[in-house]
Amino acid sequence: MTINQPFSNHNGGWIGFGPYDGYLYLATGDGGSGGDPQNNGQKGSTLLGKILRIDVDTASGYRIPPDNPFVGSAQFEEEIWAYGLRNPWRCSFDRLSRDFYIADVGQNAWEEVNFEPDTSSGGVNYGWRLKEGTHCFNPPVNCDTLGLTTDPIFEYPHSEGCSVTGGYLYRGCAISDLQGTYFFGDYCSGRVWSFRYDGTDTSQFRERTGELGVGFFNISSFGEDAQGELYIVGHNNGIIYKIIPDGVADQCGVCLAIPGDANASGKLTLGDVVAGVNYIFNKMGFPSCAFNNNLCWLSGLLCRGDWNGSGTVTLSDAIQGVNYLFNKPGGPWNPLPFGVCCLPIP
User: Which domain CATH number covers 65?
Assistant: First the structure.
């Protein structure tokens, strides 16, 4: 794939595989300059200012996934999954819900975080250059009279920073009260924030810069390890920081994980096969089943540690080499409630 770049900036800010479909997603900038002079964000005939989705599981080149939203369209390139973006800088899929978060750098006034639910079939217009955030940009008024654009779930003005850096939802175990919290930052101001999103409203917005105990500047990226713990990349000093609890880390991983990840490896493999659960081969009709070795779970309801496939973690799941932690903060060890996923510790 070759994409002609009319200007030097806004080259693209993220690439990653979908969590379950196995397709490659690419976030491309609008081509650069300022104000998107060629209107690439809204133009379907270019791959600039888009989220692209392609199948690279082929001997050479790539294929177009058959369920891409513009397959067969005369107005849009078939690689396009979503459009209306200016300079998307770091995107992420939530490892639990598979929802998609897209941070998009604004022009002169607003930074934004966009959201696409796992149930989306693509084709979303995120607004640029009609809008910057939720505000009309070009034209300055009556920019979306038909209501065809999707507004960001969060925006902040340039009094707080000037270039958003997208992050991740926290799905780690060390800080259990932050489960499901989205972390992100700003490249210019070095500030870090978090919020929760329930699919309709954001809540519990909070600045985290001070409590992290490190002065950040030029935050270029966030990272996530196999256990769901988060990291922050400082561009100016080349340091990678890990977000850790300010006290004692939770002893037990009372955390949500990848459904079916029985051995808590962070991915679905044949090592997760449990009694009463069958694997099925991926084929047309199962577009979301594209796991390792082209195998996928018949059931998506299994917990970490649920070795017998009952849907809950109990003592019946105890196996050789896997210990279950029973935790009560500040007191004796008590068994976790049935139905709570517990991280096996080797």
Answer: 2.120.10.30
Cα-based angle 265, 267, 270 (whole degrees, multiple of 5) = 85
Q: How far is CA 49 from the centre of its chain?
A: 18
Q: Would you say 91 and 16 are in contact if contact means Cβ atoms under 8 Å apart?
A: yes
pLDDT tens-digit series, residues 283-316: 333 333 333 333 333 334 344 455 555 555 555 6
- Would you say the pTM of this structure is higher than 0.85? no
Residue 67, CA atoms < 13 Å, CB-side half-sphere: 11
Domain-terminating residue out of 242, 265, 292: 242
Same domain, 127 and 274: no
Cα separation of the two ends of the chain: 44
Q: What is the CA radius of gyration of the chain?
A: 22
Residue with tokens 């009609």: 130
Whether residue 19 is preceded by a cis peptide bond, meaning omega within 30 degrees of 0, is no
Q: How far apart are CA 340 and CA 303, in angstroms?
A: 8
Task: Tell me which residue range forms the domain holding 89.
Answer: 14-242
Question: Are residues 305 and 173 both part of a single domain?
Answer: no
In Å, how far are 77, 123, 241, 315, 323 from 187, measured between CA atoms? 32, 29, 15, 47, 42
Nearest to 27 by CA among 64, 67, 60, 54: 54
Whether residue 220 is found in the same domain as residue 339: no
115-160 per-position pLDDT tens digit: 999 999 999 999 999 999 999 999 999 999 999 999 999 999 999 9
Is residue 3 situated within a structural domain?
Answer: no
Domain boundary among 207, 242, 277: 242
153 lies in the same domain as 275 = no
Answer for the pair 175, 245: CB distance below 8 angstroms, yes or no. Answer: yes
Give the residue carrying structure tokens 């496939």: 309
Question: The dihedral of CA 236, 239, 243, 246: what is its sign?
Answer: negative
Whether the Cβ atoms of residue 315 and residue 303 lie closer than 8 Å to each other: no
